[in-house]
Amino acid sequence: xxxxxxxxxxxxxxxxxxxxxxxxxxxxxxxxxxxxxxxxxxxxxxxxxxxxxxxxxxxxxxxxxxxxxxxxxxxxxxxxxxxxxxxxxxxxxxxxxxxxxxxxxxxxxxxxxxxxxxxxxxxxxxxxxxxxxxxxxxxxxxxxxxxxxxxxxxxxxxxxxxxxxxxxxxxxxxxxxxxxxxxxxxxxxxxxxxxxxxxxxxxxxxxxxxxxxxxxxxxxxxxxxxxxxxxxxxxxxxxxxxxxxxxxxxxxxxxxxxxxxxxxxxxxxxxxxxxxxxxxx
Length: 281
Prior knowledge:
Blueprint: E1 2-12, E2 15-25, H1 41-65, H2 68-93, H3 97-122, E3 127-131, E4 144-147, E5 150-169, E6 172-188, E7 198-205, E8 218-222, E9 239-244, H4 248-274
Parallel strand pairs: 3-4, 7-9
Antiparallel strand pairs: 1-2, 4-8, 5-6, 6-7, 8-9
């Protein structure tokens, strides 16, 4: 607080005149008390809780039905608005809300990679069982197919090495490591021809081996090959099933651990809210 005085000079009809005035000037605004305007920890917790929960819930259908390559784009499309929402909410509730945005990133990745895929299989949304080989073309919308009344043709078998095709881009493709692929033709026991050539495949890295056994009955359906087709003898439109055991036990384990991870993420958010975090206070 400062005391200031000013002198003014002027001219009038009766001569010169002087005027003095003074006033008190307060240069500093009153600081807010620490508790004044601070958001409620209870309210902050529930805002962050719903940000994490709703973001995960939105991504769940994409994790169930969409392929991983497509789900990544969905993840980015939904995550960018979430970042802007976090910026907007942080103006009122502080920077702690960005922890909720970060935890949403972890929770969403868990839903896309594990929980959605396992739930789709377990609930039969993306898995079809006891499919006849000649009916595979009617079930191309499923991610997992398991067959019945089939046999593996031991005369139409082979192996080849090819880099794993990660994704295609306009004018080119992105490749992963070189993979050893083995394949066997799948035929129907009834003698009926399949509409499209159908193959069981397995693959391994670093010169490893894999086995295609008649004791197994299906796996992941590939509508596009995951290798470069040059040098292979497969006809156009061939379908491939990544041959493996039933995933019933594995899907239950994935669901259990994925849900536990989501619970852990929300617990971490509660710790962030109710415990001091230095500059984020």
